[in-house]
Amino acid sequence: MSGSALAKVEYDFSHCQRCSTCKWVHLWEVKSHRFSRSCPSVVYGKFDCYTAQGRNDIAFGLYNNELSWEQNKDTLLDVIYKCTLCAACDINCKRVMDLDIIGVLDALREEACEQGYGPLPAHKEFITSIMQYDNVWKQPRTRRANWARDLKIKDLSKGKEKSDVLYYVGCTYAYRPGQDVVPIGMAKLMRQAGVDFGILGAKEVCCGGIADNVGDKKSFEEIARKNLAMFKESGVKKIVTNCPGCFTAFSEKYARMLKTDTKNLDYEVVHATVYLDQLIKEGKLKFSKDLNLKVTWHDPCHLGRRGEPYKHWEGKRIQWGLTDPPRELPRGLNGIYEPPRNILKAIPGVELVEMERIKEYSWCCGSGAGARSAFPDFALSTAKDRIDEALSTGASTLVTCCPWCETNLSDAVSSLGSKMKIMNIVELANQAL
Amino acid sequence: MAFTKLAFKALEDVLGKGNVTDDPVICQSYSRVNWLPPGYLQRVRLGTDMRPACVVLPGSTEEVQAVIRIANRFKFPFIPRGSGYTFQAFPAGKGYIVIDPKRMNRIIEINEKDMYAVVEPYVTFAELQTEGMKKGMTCPSPLAGAQVSVLANYSWHGAYGNSWISGIGAQNLEAFEWVLPTGDVVKSGSIAQPHAGWFWNDGPGPDLRGLLRGGMFGHAGGLGMVTKVSCRMTPWPGPTTLPTRGISVDKISEFPKDQFRWYMIKFPFKYPEEEEKELIQSIELFYEMGKAEIAVFATHLAKQFLYTYSSKTKQDLFENMKNNVFPQGYCVVGLQATTSVRQLNYEERVLKDLVAKVGGIFVKEDEPAYQVWIVRTANEWLRFAHGIRLARPSDSFNIGASNVDSCDGIVREIIRSNKTLRDLLAGEKELGKDFVQPLSVHGGWISPQEYAHWCLMTTDIFPEQTVKQASEAIELMGNQLKGELEDKSAAVVIHLLGPSYDLLGPMMNNVHLIVKKIKNTFDPYNLSNPPYATRPDVLSDEELKKMMGAH
Hints:
The structure holds two protein chains of two kinds.
Chain A: H1 4-7, H2 10-14, H3 40-45, H4 52-63, H5 69-81, H6 88-96, H7 101-114, H8 121-133, E1 154-155, E2 165-168, H9 171-175, H10 181-192, E3 197-199, H11 209-213, H12 217-233, E4 238-241, H13 244-258, E5 268-271, H14 272-281, E6 293-297, E7 316-317, E8 323-324, H15 338-346, E9 350-352, H16 371-374, H17 376-391, E10 397-400, H18 403-416, E11 421-424, H19 425-431
Parallel strand pairs in A: 1-3, 2-3, 2-4, 4-5, 6-9, 6-10, 10-11
Antiparallel strand pairs in A: 7-8
Chain B: H1 5-15, E1 20-21, H2 24-28, H3 37-46, E2 54-56, H4 61-74, E3 78-80, E4 97-99, E5 107-111, E6 116-119, H5 125-133, E7 137-138, H6 150-154, H7 163-166, E8 173-179, E9 185-188, H8 209-213, E10 225-232, E11 234-235, E12 244-245, E13 252-253, E14 260-266, H9 275-292, E15 297-301, H10 303-310, H11 314-322, E16 330-336, H12 341-357, E17 361-362, H13 368-375, E18 398-404, H14 407-426, E19 445-449, E20 454-461, H15 467-480, H16 482-486, E21 491-494, H17 500-504, H18 511-522, H19 541-549
Parallel strand pairs in B: 2-4, 3-4
Antiparallel strand pairs in B: 1-2, 5-6, 6-10, 7-11, 8-9, 8-10, 12-13, 14-16, 14-17, 15-16, 18-20, 18-21, 19-20
Helix pairs in contact in B: 1-4, 3-15, 9-12, 9-14, 14-15
């Protein structure tokens, strides 16, 4: 018998209309046959089980004992986890219906864990690493702030130094070789703008987003509570972060866990692109060099359509599928789309050319929610599609702001033998100083 | 004969391992269809028997042919489908295989000179329209949404917002390539002649479009699988992509006024008391416009369409209803600069004269109805992005359609069917009392076809997904359209479980007998999606009652 996770979304998976809206970008926004799809999972997997519609049917099957975990474990795990939780399906569906599709995908993963079959071994490695090392990369805690060694940044974890602004770096930018250019560059930009900020140094702990994404809610809660205690202890009012995964964890996932709205959290979370855009508008950050570069912007899913503040709802379904009290579902309306574009437009000599699938209908890089670690071929294939799309714009550089997107898209560039350059927006902004 | 391991192996040998599956988890994702009450009831009745035994992904006509030949060898039923929207694309029993055409998604040709396009089954309207627009052409947009298969829709009945110039889907079908239920390939239209190309529906020999289209329902996968079609395209003045602004549900699309103009027209009658007068004058307008041969869109929208399609959310829909944003039905007309701005301006002047002549009033831009429909929604008629919003009121809907040979006739049908529905709702049986009101009782979408030479209407009701409400919905719709059937004033489609032809054929010039002869000739083993569109044998009255009892 299936568990409580699926019960929460029974109405949603039972009322899918099978209209296929989940498979395509907004139909007004279809600009070519080549780039009309929105769901990486079904493009790779082809069968309907790899769509939101198919996963609704599978949730229905599990919930009503038409499918059993014992007999179907391998395919169930493959279908449930071969998805980046990019939420393109969810946003598309909500144009026409009022179903919580991302809630269903999330519940399927939670159900897999509740039944003792999930998450996948590759995901368990990440979670074990977080539990043992406070980071996903099995690296010593002592090396977490190595990137800041020579920068003399305040360490807010020791209780001696204080600042209202915490710059939260995240595991990947802190540890991955070559990616420390981002935190170093971000610190430089904030200094340039005269911002008083600090970091948590070696005490910084992974946001835990990956545990939530793969359905291990217990581990996620443990990690989240640890971070919340740390934020409280250090008296932080504002958290600035570069990683969209960390951003969504602190703003949306923590609020969901605490059953409150994002706006009611004890701290404010600001993504780096929003912060830098604001500093530029206030005249605190100025660029002087002309870069003479044609770029295209890749919207990371967790910054764009999944970057919305969380609004908590508790209530019940009443007649005709209405809810009491009315529930405000996320529809991609309040994601972060313009700030990174504003930054690019503010850099002299940068010409922004858009891809066909952008903003709330952006094509995922293929890396998210444990897809890259568990299904590297799927992740790579999805990223190659994005590189093809970027190349079709005539841009020489794809700019983004997510460590996972950057890595996966760089792999695709290598695999394709392309000359497309992948760059973080912070790195680009630093070049223009 | 049941689907066997040997049959599976034969399919795998032809298509390759990754393109055939009998995995119950994967097959589960082809086992349910919800939007229409009959589909919902079919699942309730059949349970996991509605889960196919196998799903295949052929990549070419030759592979489809091989699959169908294997079906004939091993005697298992197969279901050809497009995007898999309608309930006939799902098993009606155990042991079926589903042919999913996702690998057949090529736009083979877009011919600007002869204005047609050739597509495979998994090309959507949105894809074809967008590629067509780059070459100054577009194609009609079905109310199911532009995410559905062009080929499946054109091979069927297909109702469009722009039927004013295009007619129904089947009328836009030109040549096609067709794998019969036996596995033989037939070429219809100009492609029957070597090297003639895909430009026309007539070839040497008969035009076979009628076989696909059937009497009214289409063959519903019951006569093999169409693997390529050429479809008629219409002129498009530009732009090459739809101009949009806003995010997600707030997105709107605005066209340059020198290329496209929308108009919303009302009549000064009291609603609903004088609904008939309003409809009569609307039809008068359409006749006048037809005579003048102006416009690319002309339709009459009842409350159910106006509220559902324009809703941003379910809550928004109910709020708009509460605020009476659409106090009545409206005519909506679209003019396009097909040849020039001068022509567009001329048509606008003609339209203004005709609206004045029939006593109509243009809805002003500051009226809520204009803001919600024209600004937010009207361009749906160009590329239906929100087709399934019709399900928004209750997350399910039942739809019936009638084709009438004159637009005058449609007024009579609408008044009659609405009255019948209101009487039934107020009747002793209290059918439909839990449905979303008042949407149901102000029904009737009027779609004048081909410059008002004939007319289509749909009536829609909004039950919830419960056995009780779904059954009531089917009973209501059957009774609602009974009048048309009894006096043969309209060709009627009522979506039912199983062989609708058997029920409606006797009331429609015995069309079911002709369809059965065709079915028996083309599908001797009854393997192509039984029991759609018809069973090979004539059903007895008792069997028909039993079939209806399934509801």
